[in-house]
Each structure stands twice: as C-alpha cells, then as structure tokens.
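Entry type: protein chain
Record version: 2
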Amino acid sequence: MVLGAIADDFTGATDLANTLVGEGMRVVQVIGVPGPEATYGDADAVVVALKSRTAPVEDAIAESLAALEWLQSEGAEQILFKYCSTFDSTPKGNIGPVADALREALSCELTLICPAFPKNGRTIYNGV
C-alpha cells in the first residue's frame, strides 16, 4: 500500500478515492477502522472513512489514531489526513487537534495543511 488515508467524513473519503482512481491508482475505501481480518487485496491506496469531523474532539482523535495504527500495521508508506476542504468542524474544532495528534504519532516536526479541492472550486490564494 503506497497511501493510507484517514478521512474525517464519508463524502470527503469518496471524493479522495474517486480522485485517486481517476489518476490510475487501485483504491479500497472502508467505512470505519477495519478489524484485523480486513483485506485490501493489491490496492495502491486504502481510504478509511470516518465520521470524526463532527464527533467530540476526544473521540475524533482516538478514532483517527486507531485508523493510523491500522494503516501502519498494513504497511502504508505514506499517510494522508483528508479533512473537509470547506474547513468546517465543531465549535472546538477537530481538524487541528486530529492533525496535531497524527503529526505527533508519526513523529513529524511539521505538517502541510492545504484546505483546497480545486475540482470543486475550493482553492487557496495568498493564504486565503
């Protein structure tokens, strides 16, 4: 598996899976964190679709870290956190806390945040 993706909602997971397939990757999308018996065949990418965007922050972090652990156990070479490109969340926010938890779990000093999906008209210009 080249890419393991953790998506904070089902729609975003499907958008990502569709985009990857369109670029020629073999993709499996799963709903929720798979169990140990799950298989993904010869997929290049596995997209784990969660409903963490609107969940309580602690639950969103726990579920996202569980997805990360599963993807790593399956040998994912790269990890992507696919959050909502409209960058909405709960009032306390889940995107930042989940991104921080994933960054820490991956021992990364920094992470790139890019809330855009040009195909859907969501772009970034001068940081906006």
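Comment: The radius of gyration is 14 Å.
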